[in-house]
């Protein structure tokens, strides 16, 4: 018997309000665990939403890492305490979206997990907030969201989260997972992706403005950027840019950085007319 997971008396019922779909296929759990690469020389790993410990049992034997788990579902916490003795003092009961990121003090840590579909985007925005502490992410989530995050310019799946994450991480779509390997089976396929921190320490533009430009561009993605960005106030430099005749999905991360620089230059064209509409 594997020493990291024992059979216990507690049964965990998947909860719809928490977006729980428990993975049953051990071979997939093993594949996900093996995607941890140590990129960035971290030694700590945080699993989000371990549920019944199916993925956890393949993380604990990796002695190069110190493993902790964060779980919002009390029933799952009780189950893990009873069935995974190796997790003693390593279970954090709470909401990853609201907890302080001091799981390992100031040390860097990787994030891994089967992310709940209903909050996966929020998890990524939280990771962006602490990106300098998170050199690697390995996760499974709804396939459409995974594809969107990994998509490049010119692809219809390319969007806000694609640009914001790719500014700081190199992202790869690893493999697709069928619905039938979960309890209960979701109505959609899942996808596994990896994110590894790139060499960018600071954007060559104001980060707050960069986010505004990206969000404004994609919020009206069918419009040219000239029209989509009007509410932000077009500077003369931006208004004269070839970027203005393109749509947001046609711009790379580097293009968005360049465009943000143009949007930062003083002076809207025509004495402020660029702020109309």
Automatic annotation (TrEMBL):
<dbReference type="GO" id="GO:0005829">
    <property type="term" value="C:cytosol"/>
</dbReference>
<keyword id="KW-0489">Methyltransferase</keyword>
<feature type="binding site">
    <location>
        <position position="23"/>
    </location>
    <ligand>
        <name>S-adenosyl-L-methionine</name>
    </ligand>
</feature>
<dbReference type="InterPro" id="IPR011530">
    <property type="entry name" value="rRNA_adenine_dimethylase"/>
</dbReference>
<keyword id="KW-0808">Transferase</keyword>
<feature type="binding site">
    <location>
        <position position="95"/>
    </location>
    <ligand>
        <name>S-adenosyl-L-methionine</name>
    </ligand>
</feature>
<keyword id="KW-0963">Cytoplasm</keyword>
<dbReference type="GO" id="GO:0052908">
    <property type="term" value="F:16S rRNA (adenine(1518)-N(6)/adenine(1519)-N(6))-dimethyltransferase activity"/>
</dbReference>
<dbReference type="InterPro" id="IPR023165">
    <property type="entry name" value="rRNA_Ade_diMease-like_C"/>
</dbReference>
<keyword id="KW-0949">S-adenosyl-L-methionine</keyword>
<dbReference type="InterPro" id="IPR029063">
    <property type="entry name" value="SAM-dependent_MTases_sf"/>
</dbReference>
<feature type="domain" description="Ribosomal RNA adenine methylase transferase N-terminal">
    <location>
        <begin position="28"/>
        <end position="199"/>
    </location>
</feature>
<comment type="function">
    <text>Specifically dimethylates two adjacent adenosines (A1518 and A1519) in the loop of a conserved hairpin near the 3'-end of 16S rRNA in the 30S particle. May play a critical role in biogenesis of 30S subunits.</text>
</comment>
<keyword id="KW-0694">RNA-binding</keyword>
<protein>
    <recommendedName>
        <fullName>Ribosomal RNA small subunit methyltransferase A</fullName>
        <ecNumber>2.1.1.182</ecNumber>
    </recommendedName>
</protein>
<comment type="similarity">
    <text>Belongs to the class I-like SAM-binding methyltransferase superfamily. rRNA adenine N(6)-methyltransferase family. RsmA subfamily.</text>
</comment>
<dbReference type="Pfam" id="PF00398">
    <property type="entry name" value="RrnaAD"/>
</dbReference>
<feature type="binding site">
    <location>
        <position position="49"/>
    </location>
    <ligand>
        <name>S-adenosyl-L-methionine</name>
    </ligand>
</feature>
<keyword id="KW-0698">rRNA processing</keyword>
<dbReference type="InterPro" id="IPR020598">
    <property type="entry name" value="rRNA_Ade_methylase_Trfase_N"/>
</dbReference>
<dbReference type="GO" id="GO:0003723">
    <property type="term" value="F:RNA binding"/>
</dbReference>
<feature type="binding site">
    <location>
        <position position="21"/>
    </location>
    <ligand>
        <name>S-adenosyl-L-methionine</name>
    </ligand>
</feature>
<feature type="binding site">
    <location>
        <position position="114"/>
    </location>
    <ligand>
        <name>S-adenosyl-L-methionine</name>
    </ligand>
</feature>
<feature type="binding site">
    <location>
        <position position="71"/>
    </location>
    <ligand>
        <name>S-adenosyl-L-methionine</name>
    </ligand>
</feature>
<dbReference type="InterPro" id="IPR001737">
    <property type="entry name" value="KsgA/Erm"/>
</dbReference>
<dbReference type="InterPro" id="IPR020596">
    <property type="entry name" value="rRNA_Ade_Mease_Trfase_CS"/>
</dbReference>
């Amino acid at each position: 018997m594997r020493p990291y997971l024992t059979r216990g008396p507690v049964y965990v019922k998947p909860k719809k309000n928490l977006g729980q779909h428990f993975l049953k296929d051990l071979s997939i759990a093993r594949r996900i665990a093996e995607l941890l690469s140590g990129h960035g020389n971290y030694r700590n790993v945080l699993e989000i939403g371990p549920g019944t410990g199916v993925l956890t049992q393949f993380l604990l034997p990796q002695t190069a890492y110190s493993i902790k788990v964060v779980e919002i579902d009390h029933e799952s916490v009780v189950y893990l305490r009873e069935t995974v003795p190796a997790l003693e003092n390593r279970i954090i009961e709470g909401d990853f979206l609201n907890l302080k990121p001091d799981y390992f003090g100031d040390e860097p840590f990787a994030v891994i997990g089967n992310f709940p579909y209903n909050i996966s985007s929020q998890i990524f925005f939280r990771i962006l907030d602490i990106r300098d502490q998170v050199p690697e992410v390995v996760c499974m989530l709804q396939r459409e969201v995974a594809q969107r995050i990994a998509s490049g310019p010119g692809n219809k799946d390319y969007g806000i989260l694609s640009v914001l994450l790719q500014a700081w991480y190199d992202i790869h779509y690893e493999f697709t997972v069928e619905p039938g390997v979960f309890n209960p089976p979701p109505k959609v396929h899942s996808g596994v992706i990896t994110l590894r921190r790139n060499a960018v320490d600071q954007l060559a533009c104001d980060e707050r403005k960069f986010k505004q430009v990206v969000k404004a561009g994609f919020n009206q993605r069918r419009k040219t950027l000239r029209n989509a960005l009007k509410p932000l106030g077009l500077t003369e430099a931006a208004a004269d840019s070839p970027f203005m005749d393109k749509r947001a999905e046609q711009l790379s991360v580097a293009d968005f950085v360049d465009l943000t620089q143009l949007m930062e230059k003083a002076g809207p064209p025509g004495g402020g007319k660029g702020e109309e509409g």
